[in-house]
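Sample intake sheet
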Amino acid sequence: MNPEQFDLINRLFQLTFQIGDRLGCESSDPAQLLLTDRPGLEASHLYFPSDYVYEDLDPEVWANYAAEVPALSQMADLLQSYPLTCGIYRQDEVSWWICAFWMAQEGLGTNVLLRAHRVET
């Protein structure tokens, strides 16, 4: 990893800490950034409990999240040159992971998976 890649990944981790709370997450570890060689978001199912089901996330809902959460918007801007897939891994109607997957392997040496746990109360 070169210094520019390291600096960018470090900045992404810093933004991750700001994202979970703003998305309404209630766990002690509400948002995580995973560096992965998985080829896509749907193929990242091994990072979630087996009873969670993958769903595509409506682009309008993603845009609303990005508008509400400045750190999420900043992360998307930093990674704008990489293909983005957004989705949800859902346990039930009140608990799910909001996910964003950037295919950044070519530029960063790794793909990037952001997941933020959300519980509706």
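Comment: The radius of gyration is 14 Å. The longest strand covers residues 111-119.
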